[in-house]
Amino acid sequence: MHRNAAKSVRPPAMRQVERRALGVDEAKRLLDVLRGHGLEALCVCALAVGLRRGELLGLAWTGCGCMTCGTFLLVSGASPRTVMKVLGHSQIGLTMNTYVHILPEIERAAVDEAAKRLFG
């Protein structure tokens, strides 16, 4: 082959499509409607992080679920027993062994809070 055939082809013109972004009130309404729906997490990611359709669909959701929920609950101040019940664990040991990686963060926050109350 003596020539590059691709050089003789013209790419299609890119059409500029003006899109309207949701306003804050519209976004809140959308999240209210989707609360508890299977697409809620997808829409939260789209709105909060600005991910596009292809990026959202390419996400690996394996890290989202009980692990993420339990971590958020503990970091938010829920007791390990409450987290155990919410996640449906039968033993507190399972909950504590699963989330031991975040305990230093929680312990540090507790010490900081105690120091703030004690020393102002």
The N- and C-terminal alpha carbons lie at a distance of 80 Å
Biggest sheet details: none
**Beta-strand proportion:** under 5%
- What is the number of domains? 2
Low-confidence stretches: none
Strand and helix order: HHHHHHH
- DSSP helix count? 7
The secondary-structure class comes to mainly alpha
Approximate shape: elongated
Keywords:
elongated, 120 residues, 57% helix, single chain
Task: Write a short abstract of this structure.
With 120 residues, this protein is mostly helical. It contains seven helices and no strands.
Question: Mind explaining what this structure looks like?
Answer:
With 120 residues, the protein is an all-alpha fold. It has 2 domains: 18-59, no CATH class; 62-120. 57% of the residues lie in helices and 0% in strands. It has helices at residues 24-34, 40-49, 53-57, 66-75, 80-87, 92-98, 103-119. Helix 1 (24-34) packs antiparallel against helix 2 and helix 5 crosses helix 6. The chain starts with 23 loop residues before the first helix and ends with a helix. The mean pLDDT is 83.
Layout of strands and helices, then pairs:
Blueprint: H1 24-34, H2 40-49, H3 53-57, H4 66-75, H5 80-87, H6 92-98, H7 103-119
Helix pairs in contact: 1-2, 4-5, 5-6
